[in-house]
Structure formats: structure tokens, C-alpha cells
Amino acid sequence: MSRPFLVPTGELFRRRGERHRVTLAGPLRGLALSTSRLADGDVVADLVLEAQGDTVTVSGTVAGDWTGECRRCLEPTGGRVVVEVSEVFEPDAVEGETYPLGTDTIDLEPALREALALALPVAPLCDEACAGPDPGAHPVTTAADDEVDDGIGGESNGDGRPAGDPRWGALDALRFDT
Ligand SMILES: [Zn+2]
Predict the structure, then answer these.
(1) Which residues contact 5 (CB under 8 A, 6 or more apart)?
(2) Is the model's pLDDT at 141 over the cut of 70?
(3) CA-to-CA distance for 17 and 37, rounded, in angstroms?
(4) How confident is the model at residue 133 (pLDDT cuts 50, 70, 90)?
(5) Most CB contacts within 10 A, which of 11, 32, 36, 61?
(6) What pLDDT does 139 receive?
(7) First and final CA of the chain: distance in angstroms?
(8) Which of 25, 150, 147 is nearest to 75 (CA)?
(9) What's the distance, CA 39 to chain centroid?
(10) How far is the CA of 101 from the centre of ligand 1 (A)?
(11) How much distance in Å is there from the Cα of 80 to the middle of ligand 1?
């Protein structure tokens, strides 16, 4: 399995204090938030790595495409997120503050995943001016109802999302006469 975000650190530590610029690209699978998720294409990380003492600082940007469902019209939508990254990697990482550094490699993937996950839109819009579903084109279907249930099922949202999101409440109130 290729590890596009695994970088050897030998050169970094031989030249402490020197800035090494790298551009890394590869897929990051399984990143999702609410109805949006990272698309299947490559994520591109444009980073500067620098060793100081026995730590490595990493800064730059990571960019990726996302796809999702418009919260008003429920049509597929998407876009690109570009996130700034600034992290410290050290042999004895501090949970929530720094990332672990391997003996002769640095695995940037967890930091990149975290940065992108936080940047995915929680409630995507296809357009700021989206007027919501067109009743003629989109008669009420049970499939749409199922997805609304997903947002308000207090017991079943194991991913920490607050239950009873008021935005879904507004969808609940929508009724279409057919
Ligand atoms: Zn829309």
C-alpha cells in the first residue's frame, strides 16, 4: 500500500534549521462530516518541513475536493477546501497538541486528515441563493424523509452531532401538496 504522506526525516535532521519544501498528493479515504465528504480524487499538500532539536514543524496548506448534498434543495453539490496546516511532530507526542514522529519517518496523514475533516462544510449549500426544492421537480419521497430522520434521531447519532438540529426542523415543516 502506498503511503503518499509518509516522509523520510533523515535529511531533515542532517540539516536542522533548514526549510524543506515538499508537495505530496494522494487519496485520503473515508473522510466525512454530516452530509459532506471528501471526494475520491487526490488531496494535495504543499508543505514546508523543518527540524529543530528532535522535533519537526510542518506548515503549509492541504487542499481537496468535497461532495455533499445541498441542505436546502438536497441536490448533489461540492467544492474545494484549502486548509492551513501548522503542526509540531515530536517523538513523545502530546495528545491534542502535537503529532508523533517516527524513528526515521514522519507520517503526515493524521494531521492532514484532521485539518481537512474540520474544514468540510457541516451544512452545504449548492448556492447561497438556493431557494430550496422545486415542488414540481421534486415530489416528496420517502428517501428524502429517511435522510431527514438521520439528522434528528437523538439516539442514533454516534458521531457527536447535536440532536435536533433546527435546520432539519425547518425541512420537517416543509410539506408539498401533490
Ligand atoms: Zn440547493
Answers:
(1) 24, 26, 45, 107, 108, 109, 112
(2) no
(3) 37
(4) confident
(5) 36
(6) 55
(7) 52
(8) 147
(9) 10
(10) 43
(11) 17
Cα–ligand 1 centroid distance for 134 (angstroms): 10
Q: What are phi and psi of 108, to 5 degrees?
A: -85, -10
Ligand 1 centroid to 124 CA: how many Å?
8
- How many A from CA of 44 to the centre of ligand 1? 28
Among 116, 113, 107, 114, residue whose Cα is nearest residue 89: 107
Average pLDDT over the chain, rounded to an integer: 84
* Parallel/antiparallel/unpaired status of strands 76-90 and 20-26: unpaired
94 or 143, which is more confident?
94
- Residue 63 Cα to ligand 1 middle (Å): 23
SS3 56: strand
pLDDT, tens only, 64-83: 999 999 999 999 999 999 99
Torsion angles phi and psi, residue 169, rounded to 5: -60, -40
pLDDT computed for residue 152 by the predictor? 45
